[in-house]
Design brief:
Structural class of chain B: mainly beta
Largest sheet of chain B: 6 strands, mixed
Mean pLDDT of chain B: 93
Largest interface: A-B, 27 and 27 residues
Number of strands of chain A: 11
Number of strands of chain B: 12
Distance between the termini of chain B: 41 Å
Number of helices of chain A: 0
Order of helices and strands of chain B: EEEEEEEEEEEE
Radius of gyration of chain B: 14 Å
Radius of gyration of chain A: 13 Å
Strand content of chain A: over 45%
Order of helices and strands of chain A: EEEEEEEEEEE
Helix content of chain B: under 10%
Strand content of chain B: over 45%
Mean pLDDT of chain A: 93
Largest sheet of chain A: 7 strands, mixed
Oligomer: heterodimer
Chain lengths: 114, 114
């Protein structure tokens, strides 16, 4: 059974039209991460939550926001998508973020921007 | 800062051939090391990990040994199958990385032909 679930698997949006991607987990993990992965590249961490504490990577554009209303759910909001934001977005969780913790990934949402 | 370097792909080989993917890292102290695999259109899955020097991680016929003296974590499999076709990412979590942040290599695409 899937433990980290991302919806939708494919999302098409228009240039400048806000979009929200969803992630849920059944693992009851404290940490949830959002990564952006462009074609043929490594995943790039955008931000993460430890419980309700939000941690932004220094180079994450302001256009990207996140919400975590409870332990199970986390959302990625792109306020004004540009063509350069077309990518696979991966959600991941880990138990407590300590060194050696395994991250569990969802299947990803592939975002297209028209 | 921490970094991971892995061999470029694509690596193309025949079924039952021996696979090696080189991975070296730069980090202070003793990071945790991981290999993740990404099948087409999917998220990442942990393949194996090692958390201290000389540890050997193994799973599904894949092995990697944490070599502190050469700062390496090369992935090997003795006899590959077509189903092993995927992109393989070497990654680390450094001792100074907060909340289990993963630093990925660029990924190596492996194509196994019948």
């Amino acid at each position: 059974d899937a433990m980290v679930i991302q919806n939708p698997r494919y999302q098409v949006t228009q240039f400048g039209k806000p979009v929200t991607l969803s992630c849920s987990q059944t693992l009851n993990h404290n940490v949830m991460y959002w990564y952006q992965q462009k074609s043929s590249q490594a995943p790039k961490l955008l931000f993460h939550y430890y419980d309700k504490d939000f941690n932004n990577e220094a180079d994450t554009p302001d256009n990207f926001q996140s919400r975590r209303p409870n332990t199970s759910f986390c959302f990625l909001d792109i306020r004004s998508p540009g063509l350069g934001d077309a990518a696979m977005y991966l959600c991941a969780t880990s138990r407590d973020g300590s060194k050696g913790n395994i991250q569990y990934f969802g299947a990803g949402t592939r975002l297209s921007v028209l | 800062g921490n970094s991971v370097t892995q061999m470029e792909g694509p690596v193309t080989l025949s079924e039952e051939a021996f696979l090696t993917i080189n991975c070296t890292y730069t980090a202070t102290g003793y990071p945790s090391l991981f290999w993740y695999v990404q099948y087409p259109g999917e998220g990442l899955q942990l393949l194996l990990k090692a958390t201290k020097a000389d540890d050997k991680g193994s799973n599904k016929g894949f092995e990697a040994t944490y070599r502190k003296e050469t700062t390496s974590f090369h992935l090997e499999k003795g006899s590959v199958q077509v189903s092993d076709s995927a992109v393989y990412f070497c990654a680390l979590t450094g001792i100074t990385d907060s909340w289990g942040k993963l630093q990925f290599g660029a990924g190596t695409q492996v194509v196994v032909t019948p």
